[in-house]
Specification:
With about 250 residues, this protein is largely without helices or strands. The protein is built from two helices and two strands. It has a two-stranded antiparallel ribbon with strand order 1-2. A hairpin with a 5-residue loop joins β1 and β2. It is elongated and about 65 Å long. The protein starts with a helix and ends with a strand.
């Protein structure tokens, strides 16, 4: 457990100072103030940064795998190709952060804030994004295969060409989201709100849409093999062949 004296040393800490302490064996930097710190390519696996302030930090290629980052602030941080695999980012703030091609495999991202973040090409296989906020985030080409995205906010999120195979999106809000050419094969969309979402050319094979809101959705050219729309809400829904469905 870090003493109050040690915690005081973490106020206004530079990236170099943190790396030096880490190399000496220190691991718990909870509540550290690292705003704007430069830590690109640093190896900090299994570090504890719960509640730390890393807003605006430069963290390209940093290794934060298997780390405790609960409630950490990464607002507007540069996290290109950062490694967060198997890390705990519960309730972390990643709003407006640049996570281009970041590794978030098996990460705990419950209630995390990704509003307006750049997640283009990021890997989130089996990540837990339950109740996370991704409104207006750019998730173009993101890999969310097998991810748990239950009750998440994905309003106006860019998910073009995203991989969502077998993802659980139950009760999530995807209204006005762009899912053009996305692969949602086997995904669970039960209870989800997709009003006015774009699903042009998407793979919706065997998707679960029990009590799903598909009002004003455009599915022109989409693959809908094995999809049962009998309990979905359709209102001026554009089907793959261009016909309009109301149900």
């Amino acid at each position: 457990m870090v003493s109050i004296h040690v915690k005081e040393r973490f106020l206004g800490m530079t990236g170099e100072e943190l790396q030096a302490l880490y190399m000496s064996g220190e691991r718990d930097f909870s509540n550290a103030d690292l705003q704007g710190a430069a830590l690109s390519m640093a190896t900090l696996s299994e570090v504890v940064l719960n509640g730390a302030n890393l807003s605006g930090a430069i963290l390209m290629g940093v290794d934060l795998s298997r780390s405790e980052l609960v409630g950490a602030n990464f607002h507007q941080a540069k996290l290109w190709k950062a490694n967060f695999s198997v890390s705990n980012l519960n309730q972390a703030n990643l709003s407006e952060a640049n996570l281009w091609e970041a590794n978030l495999l098996d990460a705990n991202l419950m209630k995390a804030d990704f509003r307006r973040a750049n997640l283009t090409g990021a890997e989130l296989w089996n990540a837990d994004l339950s109740q996370a906020v991704l409104s207006r985030a750019d998730c173009t080409g993101v890999n969310l295969t097998g991810a748990c995205i239950v009750q998440a906010d994905l309003t106006k999120t860019q998910l073009r060409k995203a991989e969502l195979v077998n993802a659980d999106l139950a009760d999530s809000d995807l209204s006005y989201a762009n899912l053009m050419e996305a692969n949602l094969s086997g995904a669970n969309l039960s209870g989800a709100n997709l009003e006015s979402a774009q699903l042009i050319g998407a793979n919706l094979s065997y998707v679960e849409v029990v009590q799903t809101n598909l009002a004003h959705v455009c599915m022109r050219g989409a693959h809908v093999t094995g999809v049962d729309l009998s309990s979905a809400h359709c209102d001026r829904t554009v089907m793959p062949d261009g016909t309009i469905l109301n149900c």
